[in-house]
C-alpha cells in the first residue's frame, strides 16, 4: 500500500467488481475467538453460540438474529436455515459443538420469553438482537485478542468459513450452497484467495470446532 505522502501524486488504480478480495482471518484466530468465549460468563456463553454459527455455517448477521427456536431439531440433529438470498430453507447437520453451545445458552442464559427468536437482549426489554449486535459480538473478540483484520464483524467469520472450505478443495458450487448463495458469481470471488497460505488450516470438518 502506498504511503500517505504519495497518495496525491499517483492515480488510483481502477477497481473492478471481482478484483477486491474477501478478508478472512486465519482459522487459528477463529479458534482463538471461540476459546476466548469458552467461559461461564453469561455473555460469553451467548457469544460463543453466535460465533460458532458464523464460523461453522457461514451465517449472515441477519440470519443469526432471525434464527428461531423451532428451526433447531434436537432429536433429528439438524438445523433449518432460511438464507436471506434463497427462497427455500436449507437443512444442515447440527454438529455437536454448535448443539452444545446453543443448548447451554438456551438453558442457562436466554431470558424466559414468548419471543420465538433464539437470541434475545440480555437486559430488559427482552427483544431479539439486531444485526448490528452481531457485529459487536465479533468485533469485541477481534479487539480483545489483537487480531488484525480489515473487517471485524460477523461477515469476517463468514469469509473465514468460505476460505476454509476452499482450502480443503470444495468446489465453488459446494461453497456457494453451504453459504446460501443464489448466484455462482457471488462465490467466484473466493477463487482468488491465496491457496498456499490457506493450506495451513488443516482438514476441514464441520465437527472440527468441538
TrEMBL record:
Pfam families: Phage_integrase. Keywords: DNA integration, DNA recombination. Residues 20-203 form the Tyr recombinase domain. GO terms for biological process: DNA integration; DNA recombination. It comes from the Bacteria. GO terms for molecular function: DNA binding. This is Putative integrase/recombinase y4rA. It comes from Mesorhizobium plurifarium. The keyword rRNA processing does not apply.
